[in-house]
UniProtKB/TrEMBL annotation:
Alphabetically ordered keywords of this record: Hydrolase, Iron, Metal-binding, Nucleotide-binding
Gene3D superfamilies, per the entry: Hypothetical protein af1432
Keyword Hydrolase: yes
Entry's Gene Ontology molecular function annotations: hydrolase activity
One Pfam family cited in the UniProt record for this chain: HD
Superkingdom field: Bacteria
HD domain boundaries: 34-146
SUPFAM superfamilies in UniProt: HD-domain/PDEase-like
Name the UniProt record assigns to this protein: bis(5'-nucleosyl)-tetraphosphatase (symmetrical)
Top EC category: hydrolase
Length: 208
């Protein structure tokens, strides 16, 4: 295990229960809101997996681990990414919060020995999605947005839910379209998000 992770796990006792371990680790680092959010996202992942015929166990694991890097403070994430050898894009350097998806992906692999490429892929793009997405990528991306960790209901929720009545692609597209329509409110526009938007736009235009 990488040294940067060992320091954050010092004194933590694993139980082999992923639900308990992810929750308790976040609580240990005073991330109560993220701990509750991750539980909610994991449940939503199972619900969506059942609806769309995707492996429920894989979906739940992705949901539980997607924000596990929240144990690291915002201001440390750029340094940690560099220590882990993660490729950092210009937009991520400007707004390091986005790096949490990539750090969580590495943590899932290094700490919990997750080898399922679909799970790792979904965790690694759950904030931005990406151009060549998989079904589990879409599922976690949407579940994370439906069960957001802010106060009140998300302003895009109705559009996303309506989209999900058609497909995961429609749900994901509804969310990204909301962001693009309100681009001036974003700290940065991540290139993966733009790529995903273009891919979804093209795919859905072919369906219509």
């Amino acid at each position: 295990m990488k040294e940067v992770f060992k320091r954050s796990l010092d004194g933590f006792i694993f139980t082999d229960d992923l639900h308990k371990d992810t929750y308790n680790l976040l609580i240990l680092h005073n991330r109560q809101v993220v701990a509750e959010h991750s539980k909610s996202v994991a449940e939503e992942c199972k619900t969506l997996a059942n609806k769309f015929g995707i492996n429920e166990e894989a979906a739940e694991i992705a949901g539980l681990l997607h924000d596990i890097s929240a144990i690291f403070p915002f201001q440390q994430r750029l340094e940690i990414s560099n220590l882990l050898g993660i490729q950092v894009l210009k937009e991520e350097e400007e707004f390091p919060l986005i790096l949490h998806q990539k750090i969580s992906q590495v943590m899932a692999k290094e700490i919990w020995n997750i080898s399922n490429e679909d799970i790792l892929s979904a965790i690694g793009c759950h904030t931005t999605l990406k151009k060549e997405y998989k079904q589990l990528d879409l599922l976690l991306f949407v579940a994370d947005k439906v069960k957001w960790d802010q106060k009140g209901g998300p302003p895009y929720l109705e559009d996303v839910v309506n989209g999900l009545n058609i497909s995961l692609e429609h749900g994901a597209y509804a969310y990204i379209k909301y962001l693009m329509d309100n681009k001036s409110n974003l700290k940065v526009v991540h290139p993966w998000l733009v790529d995903a938007y273009n891919s979804l736009s093209l795919k859905l235009s072919d369906i219509r």
